[in-house]
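Each field is listed here:
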Amino acid sequence: MSTLSHEQAEQLIHLFADRYIRKDYAAFINLFAEDIVFEFPYAQEPNPKRLKGKAALKEYLEKLGKVLEITSFTSPVIHVAAGSPVFFAQFGASGKNLVTGRPYEQSYISVVEVLNGKIVHYQDYWNPLA
């Protein structure tokens, strides 16, 4: 098991936010390992609770982009697990629901595991009521 520095975690979450906002999905997907496991523990039907692999993540992003536009993320608060490749990020997002036209405001807590500079496991905790 490798360790992760605060700087590495900060850089990775910055790239995550920047590439997502710019809708550079190819560069965004490149942040993840081929066999990425991306989980949404609070997701409700018809949304998936778990995605496996880059292809599934790409398909999900394409669908999400038709209903949600995130225009900004707040500066994250990052906590790195000692002696581990895992970090926790707390941040907010603002944007627009493209179906209803209503503003989108969300708070996230993400648990991220990194191996060889790539995200291998991402747990995305968000409020499903937002």
Observations:
- The CA atoms of residues 33 and 127 lie 26 Å apart.
- The chain has a mean pLDDT of 94.
- The longest helix spans residues 6-21.
